[in-house]
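INTERNAL TRANSFER SHEET
From: sequence group
To: structure group
Subject: Decarboxylating 6-phosphogluconate dehydrogenase

Please process the attached sequence and return the structure record in the designated field. Keep the field labels unchanged so the import script can parse them.
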Amino acid sequence: MKLGMYGLGRMGGNMAVRLARHGHEVVLLNRTRAVSDKIHAEAPKSSVVDNLEELVAALPSPKIIWVMLPSGDVTERAIETLGNMLSKGDIVIDGGNTCYKDDVRRAKILHAKGIHYVDVGTSGGVWGLERGYCMMYGGNQEAVDHIDPILESLAPGIGDIPRTKNRGSNLNPRAEKGYLHCGPAGSGHFVKMVHNGIEYGMMQAYAEGFDIMRMKGSDRLPEDQRFDLNMADIAEVWRRGSVIPSWLLDLCADALAVDGDLSKFQGDVADTGEGRWTIEAAIEEAVPAPVITAALFTRFRSRSGNTYAEKMLSAMRFGFGGHVEKK
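Return from structure group:
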């Protein structure tokens, strides 16, 4: 299929390359032309344009434009502009970290013009180029069916992850490949939002656990109660046969193998909005979410003084998303 990719950052650029490697024709647009040229060199069957007018003109109907920009005003302006340039039957995809309430509003505006809107919650970080992207998406059936070949190419596909023992033929085959139509517009980003809220809690649990173990060797304790524990070896042994393995633990192990003190990290842990939105949804629904809430508040506190636990959080964020601490 032929589509436009607007926004070629850490994830958008890799997604464009992955799509091109799977035979899709990708028209590339980025604010900085040098970035587009770099992706073009890595992506077979791609082409480069310099503005939205050229991007729209380069695509056949129905036109498919995937917007992969930071959430907020820049994405809002891009989709508003596209809504004035596209025609009935065209498809706008937002794959960034947008608040699902904005998706619902945008979809109504575009629907009035006959334009389809699909929101894709995308997880995979900087590793998605090789591993594939887990995607949770919302939109009307006609639109999501049309772009299914694109989504299937981006998804990890069926790998070595076994089905749960109680799931058989009733398992959605797309879910087994790593992508799922969750419902109407907004539902994809809603599910991804909760995914990120859970991620906050899991990361916090790992970070606190490693901090507890590290402090067991400190002079705060009587000498006969201290253990000199090797964090890298502990992370590695937990990866093998324990009940708490995960990709996040893999990232902990990688970071600790390089530097057990995590000295390159300060521990100033950012939050990109989805943890806050998850808690807001929990409040609206009167659902208790103490773990996710505490994890978010810990990130706030990290910016006024750091512990080893917060350095571990920074290490994991750098590992999966390439997130660099703000100085």
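Handover comment: The chain has a mean pLDDT of 95. Residues 255 and 315 are 6 Å apart (CA to CA).
Transfer complete.
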